[in-house]
Write a structure and sequence with these properties.
Mean pLDDT: 84
Radius of gyration: 23 Å
Strand content: 35-45%
CATH architecture of the largest domain: Sandwich
Helix content: under 10%
Oligomer: single chain
Shape: globular
Order of helices and strands: HEEEEEEEEEEEEHEEEEEEEEE
């Protein structure tokens, strides 16, 4: 699938910044169908990406949670998955500065159709399905990272543990343009719980050019006040205009390619590519160098990590069952940020023996070993 998928991914990346009918939803993985990292993570009490791709948790002193990708979805809407936050340790009396939320970050080049900061700036609309145990008001905030501006909107969970549909239209922002680059320009922040530092004023439903903390999340209910509480959401669509349209379903291979721009995982039972060979050579008796081209281009030079034991097939039996070296390095230090990259990555392996100058093949055919590449915003 090498050259075909790389060409597909390049074409997709280019089209995401163009205002076309086929890509009106600016959110990637709004249907929560892609979860390369896994489908369940427990013990969450801090920031991180845990299950569904492109959905980050921001958490500070607001209980403990389990996040799962679920098959529980609103009936008859075409969805197959949702993302769920299950409160496992309650926080009924949060500190004033405490906060927990789900967040989706967007590159500036994907936002140019909004024409933010110009006389032609457009309103935008967020639509989604939600199922929360706690009834009442919840807040969604748009954070303009390029200009330190923000605006908030609210929605209501009317009936406990019932799928409901909401839309929020945000006014046009005429102060400060989005940078036309690959960096984070906008964050869509869905609040789960908030301390009093953010709720004691008047909700900022127009753009704040100087953000007042007390006006950001006014009216937000505490979805963490009981271990019986769940916070579930799917079908998130963010688009230009003041009217919500039907959710834009994309083929799975397109969704995977779009998500892979930010995160790729090779190997592992939940990985995209369980068997991914890499060739190289031994430069000493116990040290080996291998290179790997990623199947999809990434947003920028990735941060790499690994787990488990991979297999080396070479000239000696003692080259098998090896463990990667502690540092995974990129081969090309002169990476250009002007276009997506699938430049090769260089890995060092250390084994108990081998023959200098001999060729090797590195691969996995088990469930546990992984190589991970992150270029999240």
């Amino acid at each position: 699938m090498g050259s075909i998928t790389r060409t597909l991914a390049n074409n997709l990346t280019s089209s995401q910044g163009v205002d076309t009918n086929n890509f009106r939803n600016i959110i990637i993985n709004g249907d929560c169908s892609i979860a390369i990292r896994g489908t369940s993570t427990s013990g969450i009490s801090g920031d991180g990406y845990y299950t569904c791709d492109r959905w980050n948790v921001g958490a500070g002193s607001f209980g403990t949670w389990t996040q799962t990708q679920e098959t529980d979805v609103p009936s008859g809407q075409g969805f197959t998955n949702s993302i769920k936050m299950d409160c496992t340790t309650a926080q009924a009396s949060p500190a004033g500065s405490s906060l927990i939320y789900l967040e989706h970050a967007i590159e500036g080049q994907h936002l140019q159709r909004i024409q933010q900061g110009t006389a032609n700036a457009q309103p935008t609309t967020l639509s989604f399905w939600h199922k929360h145990t706690k009834t009442g008001t919840n807040i969604v905030e748009l954070l303009d990272a390029d200009n330190s501006n923000a605006v908030s909107g609210s929605y209501t969970q009317s009936v406990s543990d019932t799928w409901e549909y909401s839309t929020i239209t945000f006014p046009a922002g005429t102060s400060g343009t989005f940078d036309n680059d690959i960096n984070r320009s906008l964050r869509i922040r869905i609040i789960i719980g908030s301390g009093s530092d953010y709720t004691s004023g008047t909700l900022a439903t127009t753009w704040q050019t100087t953000i007042t903390s007390a006006d950001r999340y006014v009216g937000q209910v505490n979805n963490a006040d009981s271990t019986s509480n769940n916070f579930q959401i799917t079908g998130l669509q963010y688009e230009v205009g003041s009217t919500a349209t039907d959710f834009e379903f994309l083929p799975r291979e397109i969704q995977e390619a779009r998500c892979a721009r930010y995160f790729q995982r090779i190997g592992g039972s939940m990985g995209q590519y369980r068997f991914m060979p890499s060739t190289g050579m031994s430069w000493s008796g116990a040290a080996h160098l291998a290179t790997l081209y990623l199947p999809f281009p990434m947003r920028t030079q990735a941060t790499t990590s690994y787990s488990g034991t991979w297999t080396l097939s070479g000239t000696s039996a003692d080259e098998a069952g090896s463990t990667p070296g502690a540092t995974l390095q990129t081969m090309d230090a002169g990476f250009s940020s002007s276009f997506p990259s699938n430049y090769p990555y260089r890995f060092s392996w250390v084994t108990t023996g081998g023959s200098a100058g001999k060729g090797i093949l590195i691969y996995t055919d088990a469930n546990s070993p992984t190589l991970q590449f992150s270029a999240e915003l």
